Amino acid sequence: MAASYETDTDTEAGTEASEPRERDAPEDIVLEAPANGLAFHPARNLLAAGDVDGDVFVFEYSCREGETKELWSSGHHLKACRDLAFSEDGQKLITVSKDKAIHILDVERGRLDKRISKAHSVAINSLLLVDEHLLATGDDNGGIRLWDQRKESPIMDLRHHEEYIADMALDPAKKLLLTASGDGCLGVFNIKRHRFELLSEAQNGDLTSVTLMKRGKKVACGSSEGTIYLFNWNGFGATSDRFALKAESVDCIVPITDNLLCTGSTDGIIRAVNILPNRVVGSVGQHAGEPVEQLALSHCGQLLASSGHDHRLKFWNMTQLHSVVVDDYRKRKKKGGQLQALSSKAWGMDDFFAGLKEEEATVPASVDNDEEEESEDSD
């Protein structure tokens, strides 16, 4: 369960040791297996990762060279850890697994405090914390369960999806639970009243991810077909807009601002995408030739973490994205136009598809792009 760390220093051999170099993002962490789940601590510089072997790691990260370190690891899950999240106070880490179990771990000691060994009848795929006591879980058969951590049995148990629950989101009032499913539908569940509300029309491909945008007025869903579907709040039956990226898929999404989100895809590229007007702003970074499995945003909002099939946890500096403003005016696209690189570690396309060399401190300024979109840019 060991992890290693990779730097991109280009100091000459024999250079006298000095103060650790300050980076714009922590160095990569290399695991022995790909990580399915990623979560940042709500207040401290801690990142948790759960991998396909069932191991859970907590790292303390730093932008100072050589100071990122593993605090502890846990091998209590029997199968892949699919998702995890820190509690609101940061004292607990909750994990779910293909082994059907929910684990609650003490963050300081890495000790297993509680195990619900048969939380679902099939593998659990997703997790969402509602508040300090409540959490929701979704399984491979489309089942949704709501748990009070003070009790042993679920307080809500519903199944209205026909396929796996890929992701879940919650409205600010913590009343409605939104679910993205492999059946192509967005689900709406009232967790205050413990009841099912509705399913949307089925979209093309699996819905892989879901998040709220535009101060909660819009819901964005990623799909296995590379399209972002948009729903109006309280208009969940049918999409209000759609945005097709030139990407193999949109496997995970994380909101950066009210208008901007980042997507991870099977092609390995992490894209920054503005919502309404719908634009691909640029490339944040990449996992060389390997699918991006998960994305997470730090508590300070300045760092994005990504996990990929290359066994790496990578960090990306988000400072530039917070100042991005996208004009409503749509410029005519040039054939084979360029997509702006939004971090110092975003490669040019030749480097990306070569995919065999290490990241360098100095990189090309842009990556190739002709991101066509199908979009009405509605309000």
UniProtKB/TrEMBL annotation:
<dbReference type="InterPro" id="IPR036322">
    <property type="entry name" value="WD40_repeat_dom_sf"/>
</dbReference>
<dbReference type="GO" id="GO:0005654">
    <property type="term" value="C:nucleoplasm"/>
</dbReference>
<feature type="region of interest" description="Disordered">
    <location>
        <begin position="1"/>
        <end position="25"/>
    </location>
</feature>
<keyword id="KW-0698">rRNA processing</keyword>
<keyword id="KW-0539">Nucleus</keyword>
<dbReference type="GO" id="GO:0005730">
    <property type="term" value="C:nucleolus"/>
</dbReference>
<dbReference type="InterPro" id="IPR015943">
    <property type="entry name" value="WD40/YVTN_repeat-like_dom_sf"/>
</dbReference>
<protein>
    <recommendedName>
        <fullName>WD repeat-containing protein 55</fullName>
    </recommendedName>
</protein>
<dbReference type="InterPro" id="IPR001680">
    <property type="entry name" value="WD40_rpt"/>
</dbReference>
<keyword id="KW-0677">Repeat</keyword>
<dbReference type="InterPro" id="IPR017422">
    <property type="entry name" value="WDR55"/>
</dbReference>
<dbReference type="GO" id="GO:0006364">
    <property type="term" value="P:rRNA processing"/>
</dbReference>
<comment type="similarity">
    <text>Belongs to the WD repeat WDR55 family.</text>
</comment>
<comment type="function">
    <text>Nucleolar protein that acts as a modulator of rRNA synthesis. Plays a central role during organogenesis.</text>
</comment>
<keyword id="KW-0853">WD repeat</keyword>
<dbReference type="Pfam" id="PF24796">
    <property type="entry name" value="WDR55"/>
</dbReference>
<feature type="region of interest" description="Disordered">
    <location>
        <begin position="360"/>
        <end position="379"/>
    </location>
</feature>
<feature type="compositionally biased region" description="Acidic residues">
    <location>
        <begin position="368"/>
        <end position="379"/>
    </location>
</feature>
<dbReference type="InterPro" id="IPR050505">
    <property type="entry name" value="WDR55/POC1"/>
</dbReference>
<dbReference type="GO" id="GO:0005737">
    <property type="term" value="C:cytoplasm"/>
</dbReference>
<feature type="repeat" description="WD">
    <location>
        <begin position="117"/>
        <end position="157"/>
    </location>
</feature>
